[in-house]
Design a protein that fits this description.
Arc Repressor Mutant, subunit A, single chain, 10 helices, 2 domains, mainly alpha, 2 strands
Length: about 220
């Protein structure tokens, strides 16, 4: 096991250096030694090649490959797996700059996606908490009589959309999408329903944006 780990390090350093030198000569025509550069191109190519080779295990892990694990877990070195790993190290070190940039970008994207997913989950949890912790406006038994409220067809569509998702605080855009009523008309209809005390406006705790819910009166309204 310890010998296998030492072998992995040796492969990375030796073949990372070899790939860096190959990359140096491969791109020799494109290189120019500036007056302010402390190290010669071949030395910088070797350093970059070794750095790229050290990123190969990370690349394999991101690709869900168990190649390194297979090499270091057995008592006897699997030569075919070792040669595959050597090939990865040389390929990565030959194009070290592009390989390092690609790995950095993939890692950054994965971290960003993870943060966005965590943020969306946190917002969803807070929305559910808002709904569950919302105080009741009144007792159902004391709901005022609502027999004479006149409703338009669009009023009715909005109320039905609210009742289809009774635990959700609805946005104008979501109601517009569900009912097929244009956005501006949806806003006007909500203002009208609020004037009839059928709908109430609330704010989310996360960003303070406007949401709408049926009032106690709206929940008991017969369509």
């Amino acid at each position: 096991m310890d010998y296998s780990i030492f072998l992995i390090f040796l492969v990375i350093i030796v073949f990372g250096s070899l790939g860096g030198i190959i990359g140096h000569f491969y791109n020799f025509d494109e290189l120019s030694q500036g007056p302010g550069q402390k190290f010669p191109h071949w030395a910088r190519s070797v350093i970059a090649g070794v750095a790229a080779a050290f990123l190969v295990p990370l690349f394999l892990t991101m690709a869900s490959s168990k190649l390194v694990e297979k090499i270091i877990s057995g008592d006897v070195i699997n030569v075919s797996n070792l040669f595959v790993f050597i090939g990865f190290c040389i390929a990565a070190s030959v194009s070290s700059r592009r390989f390092i940039g690609s790995i950095s970008k993939q890692l950054h994207d994965k971290i960003q996606n993870f943060e966005e997913t965590a943020e969306r989950a946190d917002r969803a949890v807070k929305e559910v908490e808002d709904v569950l912790n919302e105080d009741e406006v009144g007792d159902v038994e004391t709901v005022p009589q609502v027999a004479n409220i006149e409703l338009t067809e669009e009023n009715t569509k909005l109320i039905e959309s609210f009742r289809a998702n009774p635990l959700m605080r609805r946005s104008i855009s979501g109601l517009s999408r569900d009912t097929g009523i244009p956005y501006n008309s949806t806003k006007e209809q909500l203002d009208e329903l609020m004037s009839k005390k059928v709908v109430e406006k609330v704010q989310t705790q996360t960003d303070g944006s406007d949401r709408y819910v049926l009032s106690i009166q709206g929940k008991s309204l017969k369509l």
